[in-house]
């Protein structure tokens, strides 16, 4: 069943793998509003569950945004286009992952976006590291950041929920860049940070992210050790 995780925003969990990483969840987010928008599309083989979840919300998506090209984020792209005729937006440097079979775009996207582009209520923020094409979407009006895979919920790694962690190295990418580039999100104001894996952070999300990025040891090193 979909869950209205904050007002007008639905978490549609398409897969829950209890055997992997403490219970990995794979989800999409559906935003109600002037232009109902779905962000990401889950796996190719979860499209029936995704569409069923959308139907249960009563919201008909008109726009699809893609955060990056991993199969669990872009796999249902074709099904959503076929079912709803959504306007599609994908990263200008989209790289479709080869790690998931059956992933591909049957129709060219309507739009390609780059860092800083406004798409309705959202601003696209390029945060490479997990993948080169990784983006987050920030809606400062309502104080919501959709993190893509630039960060994940701490409970995915066995910690208490309510915090952010980096994607694990086994999922590919450059962990150092992934951490360093999170600083870009601190330029924005948001209260809620929605993640695709693990539990989202629903209060003080920006401050929580800043505490993770600018931890005391880093601040000490940058202000004291580096300047010796």
Question: How would you characterize the overall build of this protein?
Answer:
With about 230 residues, the protein is of the alpha/beta class. It has a single domain (about 5-95, about 120-225), classed as Metallo-beta-lactamase, Chain A. The protein has 6 helices and 14 strands. The strands form 3 sheets. A 7-stranded mixed sheet has the order 1-2-3-4-5-6-7, covered by helices on one side. Strands 8-9-10-11-14 form a 5-stranded mixed sheet, with no helix packed on it. A two-stranded antiparallel ribbon has the order 12-13. A hairpin with a 6-residue loop joins strand 2 (about 10-15) and strand 3.
What descriptors fit this protein?
single chain, 6 helices, Metallo-beta-lactamase, Chain A, alpha/beta, 25% strand, 228 residues, 5-stranded mixed beta sheet, 7-stranded mixed beta sheet
Query: Which CATH-level-2 architecture?
Result: 4-Layer Sandwich
Unreliable stretches (pLDDT < 50, length at least 5) are: none
Can you summarize the main beta sheet?
Answer: 7 strands, mixed
- Quick one: overall form? globular
Number of helices: 6
Strand content: 25-35%
Strand order of the largest sheet: 1-2-3-4-5-6-7
CATH topology: Metallo-beta-lactamase, Chain A
| Rg over C-alpha atoms, rounded to the nearest angstrom | 17 Å
Structural class: alpha/beta
The helix/strand series, from N terminus to C terminus, equals: EEEEHEHHEEEEEEEEHEHH
Fraction of helical residues: 10-25%
Relevant CATH superfamily: Ribonuclease Z/Hydroxyacylglutathione hydrolase-like
Number of strands: 14
Mean pLDDT: 88
CATH C-level label: Alpha Beta
Distance between the termini: 56 Å
Q: In total, how many domains does the architecture comprise? A: 1
């Amino acid at each position: 069943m979909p869950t209205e995780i904050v007002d007008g925003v639905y978490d549609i969990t398409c897969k829950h793998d209890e055997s992997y990483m403490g219970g990995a969840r794979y989800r999409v987010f559906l935003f109600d509003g002037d232009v109902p928008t779905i962000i990401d599309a889950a796996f190719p083989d979860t499209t029936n569950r995704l569409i069923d979840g959308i139907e249960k919300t009563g919201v008909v998506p008109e726009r699809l945004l893609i955060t990056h090209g991993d199969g669990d984020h872009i796999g249902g792209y074709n099904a959503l286009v076929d079912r709803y005729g959504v306007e599609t937006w994908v990263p200008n440097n989209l790289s479709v992952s080869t790690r998931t079979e059956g992933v591909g775009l049957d129709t060219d996207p309507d739009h390609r976006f780059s860092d800083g582009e406004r798409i309705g209520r959202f601003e696209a923020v390029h945060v490479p590291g997990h993948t080169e094409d990784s983006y987050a979407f920030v809606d400062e009006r309502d104080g919501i950041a959709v993190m893509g895979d630039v960060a994940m919920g701490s409970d995915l790694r066995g910690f208490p929920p309510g915090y952010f962690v980096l994607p694990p190295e086994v999922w590919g990418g450059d962990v150092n860049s992934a951490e360093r580039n999170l600083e870009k999100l601190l330029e924005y104001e948001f209260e809620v940070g929605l993640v695709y894996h693990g539990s989202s952070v629903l209060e003080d999300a920006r401050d929580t992210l800043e505490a993770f990025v600018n931890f005391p040891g880093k601040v000490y090193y940058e202000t004291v050790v580096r300047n010796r």
